[in-house]
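Recap for those who missed Tuesday's class. We walked through two folding examples back to back. For each one, the amino acid string is listed first and its predicted structure tokens come directly after. Nothing is annotated here on purpose, so try labeling regions yourself before you check the end of the notes.
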Amino acid sequence: MPPVLLAIACLFAVTLCYASVCAASPFGNCRKCKGHGHIVKITRRGTARRGKDCRRCKGHGKRIRVGRHLYNLAARIHRDGTR
């Protein structure tokens, strides 16, 4: 197989796998709070305390994946255009 076809096949496989992950689990853990929903603070004694709610995920601990966001956007445009 020529290297160009192999690269295209690998890229297609990665895209297909990511699309299946987005379909099966549209939400992933928030990168800022690591899915806790709040920032973990360490006190001076070294114990972990609950901090403020995460501003990025608004305290839910989950975020929508990029692929799912693009799918929702395309579906919304299609739905609005066919009405």
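Example two. Treat it independently of the first, because the proteins are unrelated.
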Amino acid sequence: MLGSRIREWGPLDWCVAVVIVLALVAGGIYGGSKLLRRCDNGLSEIDGQCIGVTTESFEADDDIGSLLDAIADENHRVASESGTPYVRIALMTAFTSGDRSAMTSDMIRRALAGSLAALQEANAGAGGPQVQLMLAPIGQQLDQWRPVVEKLDTLADDKDHPLVGVTGIPSSQTDTRRALEELSASKIPTVGPVINASSMNFDYFFKTSPDDKQFANALRHYLDTYPQGRKKGLLLLDRHTGDVYSKDLTDTLENRFGKDYGLTTNPSLFTGSSGSDEGEPGIFFDAVGKICNQGTDTVFFAGRDQDLPGFIDALSDEGSCTHGKPLRILKTGIGLEPTLTRPEVERDLKKANATIVDAASFDPRWEKAGSTDRPAGVDDFLDRFNTLKTAHTLGAKPLADGYAASYYDGLRLLTEAMKRTFADMNKDSDSEQLPTRQELYTTLSQSTVNSSGMLQGATGTYGFAAQDTHNRWSTCKPVPVVEFPPRRHDRKLSLYRTYDNNDCPG
């Protein structure tokens, strides 16, 4: 064998070798490119996450990949249509989730689905420029906002395709407050689709959701309509120091209900699952003990929805509990988060003889035609959303938490205002001019209450009052109150609407 003659390669051998090498090189380039392109096209990797501003898809949570691809495809289509003017709007939010992140993976993908529905609707309609939706990830804790805001400010100065606004901002906390201060200093109109903390007020920040004070008014309306028990209350609040939402809601609940329900002298604190504070999340021993020993009939929950099932489970496990029955657990939020209506939670609620009472921005019952107080604009939203629901995996009860409908409204507020601004600017002009951030801000700052400028959105028909009124919180916004499990009542609860001076449309 050692002495045998080695066969020389012929032409066929060399061809095969070249093909194999090229295949390996191509595979290596592709695989390496995929790794290298993880955070490119305007993005940089910071702490293992893609941060920045882009019109392209990128690596994020696994279950939002198809939605990011669909947005990128729409952006490519807009840019490829020669001669068609377009502007840009940024979706500034979290695109990754974790055990203690600001948004759950379900919230992220439903927010993206609602935004995509609004983008498709804006670009399908005649008149006005097309829209690119720029994706602006700021990290799962929403703390990597500085390079993003700096880039957005630069993009707003683009003469050809200016960035005219921002939507997203999914949580009221210290970092998002600072980000909004900078966005306002840069004079970029920004919309908060799911912001509820009443202290989140900045000159260029418009909120399409109700604030905690308006939610509390809706709960007061509910309690006055359906009085029950001896008004023995307990305030259950998240101890996180950086959570502006929980702090503002705690202050509001104490102011609205403290005296009548004895809240100021009887709170119970827990460590929530969102945030980075020390402490074991989901410990409710103190709260359950107080509820059972003091005959509590009304719990006022000042925390995040994802922590509520743990409390309900702890309450149901207390077999000798003698709370005021039935117990009502009052909360506020965008919708009724699907984890709150799972069979095991419903079982625990029935075992504890308790009901969730949620003052919300979206009522899941509105999905059904003919439902009570159903907004006029919900059908246009559902036409788009139901198509996306077929094409993408959006999870169980994808409308229930209200995120899809709210993010749809947030982007639509900007696109509708942009098209009105464009039409006004060019009605007497021979050459078309694109609106800028300042011109869009001027349009948004005009009163639209009871006018053609009111938004017919998925979460209601509403507008904004004059520039310095109500701190740019939406006016005439419906605030439905949803019970789970639903209870029987001898009369209908009338719909509360924000800042209603008997001038809101029917």
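Answers for example two:
The chain has 13 helices and 17 strands.
Confidence is low (pLDDT under 50) at residues 1-8, 14-37.
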